[in-house]
Amino acid sequence: MNNNVDKQRRHILKSAALVSAATVLPFSSFAIGKSRPQLRILGTHVTLQEELRQKAMADLGIELIFEPKGSAAVLQKASMSPDSFDLYEQWSNSINVLWRSGSIKPIDKRRISHWDEINSLTKTGRVTPQANIGAGDAPYKLLHIQKNGTLSSNDTNSISYLPYVHNVDSFGYNTSVIDKGIPYETESWGWLLNEENRGKVGIVNEPTIGLFDLALAAQAKGLIKFKDIGSMTTLELDKLFEILINYKQRGHFSGFWTSVPESVRFMKSNRV
User: Fold this and answer.
1) Suppose 217 and one of 166, 192, 253, 267 were both cysteines; which one would form an S-S bond, judging by CB atoms 3.0 to 4.6 Å apart?
2) Looking at the predicted structure, is the pLDDT value of residue 188 above 70?
């Protein structure tokens, strides 16, 4: 990393007092000396799609360079080489790592003209005022930068990321092998640990997702009961890993995928 970038990172941390969901995070400015501004975007295959790149370039008149990777790979590159990208997009749980490493800049919320159009889920943790708060961490808890440089849900004019898209994690299955279930009725996370699926189960290699997929599966099978699945105790984690290690030793899992293209290959090759 060059000295200028290193100095800029230190300045960001020192001046934080004065200034998650896939996320968009600016670091450096547009490339200089180009007739057509160039923007380097580091992110996941989920959203960095070629059709979107072509449409955005046509609409904005700028050159976009997409660099899609698996979630672990993009987080590692962004935290270790912040000068390698201009915009970063990934899940909001990457914010803590990137903010603490000084890899991202604060965003002045007052410059976002359509801020009011962003729905309340990533701002307050609720789709409606009457909705329940979900278990565990949430993007809104990391959204606003406080005067002391920490991230919080307390509203300020400085934010750590720009919320722009959100989804729901789920599991996929091959209906030519497993009978099609009824959503929310007969389909179950427990299917991931069903004995008849031994050797044909693939899990995402992302601790903040894959671990909870398996926790939901173990709970659905009645193998464990969590008091608060969003804040597991040490004893609960020990019990969960005891269960999962037993499944692994019996050859239950086919492998762990690190990117969307790899998960597609798993399914197409009948590995899962």
Assistant:
1) 192
2) yes
Strand 22-26 and strand 87-88: the pairing is: antiparallel
Q: Please calculate the CA angle 98-103-106 and round it to the nearest 5 degrees.
A: 90
Specify the 3-state DSSP secondary structure of 239.
helix
**How many Å apart are CA 79 and CA 27, to the nearest integer?**
12
CB 103 within 8 A of CB 83: no
| 43, 101, 153, 212 from 122: Cα distances, Å | 19, 23, 10, 20
What per-residue confidence (pLDDT) applies to 208? 80
Cα dihedral: 185, 189, 191, 193 (round 10): -150
Strand runs labelled E in the chain: 22-26, 38-44, 63-69, 87-88, 107-108, 144-145, 151-152, 158-159, 162-165, 201-204, 253-257
Which residues are CB-contacts of 29 (< 8 A; sequence separation ≥ 6)? 86
> Residue 54 and residue 31: Cα distance in Å, rounded?
19
Quick check: 202 and 256 in contact, CB under 8 A? yes
Interatomic CA distance for residues 110 and 112, integer angstroms: 5
**What length does the chain have?**
272
Angle at 21 between CA 16 and CA 26, to 5 degrees: 40
What pLDDT is attached to residue 168? 75
**Amino acid present at 154:** N
Q: Which of the four pLDDT bands, split at 50, 70 and 90, describes residue 229? A: very high
Cβ(178)–Cβ(197) below 8 Å: yes
The residues near 96 (Cβ < 8 Å, ≥ 6 apart) are 142, 151
**How do residues 28-42 score in pLDDT, each as one tens digit?**
444 555 578 999 999
Which DSSP symbol is given to 171?
-
- The answer to whether 164 and 177 are in contact (CB under 8 A) is no
